[in-house]
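Input chain follows. Return structure tokens only.
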Amino acid sequence: MSLSVTAAPGARRFEDCAPKSLSNLPAAALYQLAVARGEGDIAKEGPLVVRTGEHTGRSAQDKFIVRHPEVEDKIWWDANKAMSADAFDRLYADMLDYAAGRDLFMQDLAGGADETYGIKVRAFTEYAWHGLFIQHLLVRPPLDARPSVSGEGAPDFTIVALPGFAADPQIHGCRSKTVIAVDFVRRIVLIGGTSYAGEMKKSVFTILNYLLPEKDVMPMHCSVNVGDAQDPAIFFGLSGTGKTTLSADPNRTLIGDDEHGWGPNGLFNFEGGCYAKMIRLSPSAEPEIYATTRRFGTVLENVVMDPETRELDLDDASLAENSRGAYPIHYIPNASLTGVATHPKNIIMLTCDAFGVMPPIARLTPAQAMYMFLSGYTAKVAGTEKGLGNDPEATFSTCFGAPFMPRHPSEYGRLLGKLIDRHGVSCWLVSTGWTGGPHGVGKRMPIKETRALLTAARNGSLNAAPMR
């Protein structure tokens, strides 16, 4: 994607804080530095275990979009908080002052496996493990194809993550010491006051959600897999609804587990890795994901580890209900290394119904699918955002991803409706929530049964089944 990049405010640059020795380091070097700097520990069989402290999920209330005349009429301000350009200038200057006395890790990566629509992303991180995380989660171009620090082949967007920086609401126009500020005009994202690495990957998602609709490409909060019959399936859903688990199907090729685009060339992954929930991960129901917790390179956030034996306890939620694992997509044995697929045959909309009302599966007409997409009913699962309690919280998150949608939902809805009609896609609603009663009475839908229903939907066996 060809972008016109506006220079950052002021003459100083974050590049000045990133020595060449810490730029575009391979995973093993970042691993070694993370341990040497006391940022994490190596668990039995090799994964890196880190803690994110106060923030174990996204800080949705601390995310802002900078208000400029150029974007004023394009942003859905009812759901996005505004930050003034002057406040962003002060935040930029103060974060640069904070970084001046520290060495930053720099990674040159890409958002989007389709080179026609992807963007070049330069990430600066205060922590070595954050550098490893974003290297896993974004697309990794060959080292000789990455832009140079001197400015040749400059990035399209820059992301700066400084967990040790504390924002001041009175000065920086934010809500607390934590801030995620996205400037679409100056093409910079500033993240401060949180160690939760997921803020970086979701910032790239927000950027692509802003840019791609103007290119007639649908950005989606979804996972994608494909079978031998070249029958790609899209799984829409919020965090905790089963996108990662259900897309990691041993009988199908994984394209990606969380964020994709759908355009003229078909489907493409925005990422180069996966960010899976670890809590109570089952080696029998989710063997491919479970195996990543036994590999060198995987970054485990807030997973409990025995300090003596270095063994993991994935069932222990004492640090966080939202414990996570980040790993490159090739750690899943049957994952696609290209990140692209043809146009989908099926769309599955996942809802984690907390009240035991939704059926295990339902076939949807295109109109019903559009209704479900725009309403986005589900329940937020404990831990995926700061402030959630132990019980699921019913919500309507339009487009199954309102926190990451800068534009009005109608723009995404029109795009999706047009693509469903153009390619004759079958649509399904699948509940991964509770059956036999609401949360606390019934039980969570078994993964094995949900997989069987999805197989029947994809192979056509459900087409003749009576539905009401």
